[in-house]
């Protein structure tokens, strides 16, 4: 008899989901302490107090969604991971900065005072080492601590690139719990890191950080987003980044999970949606041209495939909301 060797077993990591729904402020406080290191945490509310939090992820990458009709305040310590938050409704102040609705804001490393009032928010946590490794690969320096531009609020193409990442990563995180591929989780965390690094200006904390061989990917992303409304080709992007087309394609596939031109197309579609949702444009064609899309028929089809409705429907709904 012979033992059969089926080969090495692929490494896995546990993705968990924790849901808390309560009308009790003490239970809500315990839930928050489970997900954040907070000093002096206070959770207060009136007779209509409700709290709901869903926390899904692994030590590498976690997505949290919270809604609360009360007030949460305390001092958050964001040393262990890179933490981004975006307010969906309500009012919030983090480190003295009032948060805008619908824009990702980076928690400063270390401690900061926070106060949330009658809010809905999402939080993305990314392993700090993964972010430092991806930043080094994109920027062409040795991995190490990073500094980020304080209080930066992304807009335009970088904001669209951020939402593209969130849509892609969140769909997979929320879609599967239990044992998942460790290699794939590293890929997702790297994708999340790239979205963060595209949205928030950053640099090595060491001023004298030695440069490695020029990485080029960050230059490629910058060129794409700076010229998002222009007619550009993959050859243009590769030339701007000092990379071969094959090297560029490989780097984009590794970090973003797609090709440079598919990435550009998705960013344009999300920028168009952002503009249509303001309700301030006279026609869909104006929005399409503003983001570099010249073929309206293809635009409508791609937009419906991406968002489940035609661009004209988005514009009409936005006008009705703002009327």
What's the arrangement of secondary structure elements?
Layout: E1 12-22, H1 25-35, E2 37-44, E3 51-57, E4 61-77, E5 81-94, E6 97-98, E7 105-106, E8 111-127, H2 128-139, E9 146-148, H3 156-175, E10 178-181, H4 182-199, E11 202-204, H5 217-226, H6 234-241, H7 245-256, H8 260-276, H9 284-290, H10 296-307, H11 311-322
Antiparallel strand pairs: 1-3, 1-10, 2-4, 3-4, 4-8, 5-6, 5-7, 5-8, 9-11
Helix pairs in contact: 2-4, 3-4, 3-8, 5-6, 8-9
Query: What is the 3D form?
Result: globular
Chain-averaged pLDDT: 89
The SSE string, one letter per element, is: EHEEEEEEEHEHEHEHHHHHHH
Low-confidence stretches: none
Number of strands: 11
Helix content: 40-55%
The computed structural class is alpha+beta
C-alpha termini separation: 79 Å
Q: Provide the β-strand percentage band.
A: 25-35%
Radius of gyration: 21 Å
* Tally of DSSP helical segments: 11
Largest sheet: 9 strands, antiparallel
Explain this structure to me?
With 323 residues, the protein is of the alpha+beta class. 43% of the residues lie in helices and 27% in strands. It is built from eleven helices and eleven strands. It has helices at residues 25-35, 128-139, 156-175, 182-199, 217-226, 234-241, 245-256, 260-276, 284-290, 296-307, 311-322, and strands at 12-22, 37-44, 51-57, 61-77, 81-94, 97-98, 105-106, 111-127, 146-148, 178-181, 202-204. The strands form two sheets. Strands 1, 2, 3, 4, 5, 6, 7, 8 and 10 form a nine-stranded antiparallel sheet that branches. Helix 5 crosses helix 6 (234-241) and helix 8 crosses helix 9. The longest helix is centred in the middle third of the chain and has 20 residues, at 156-175.
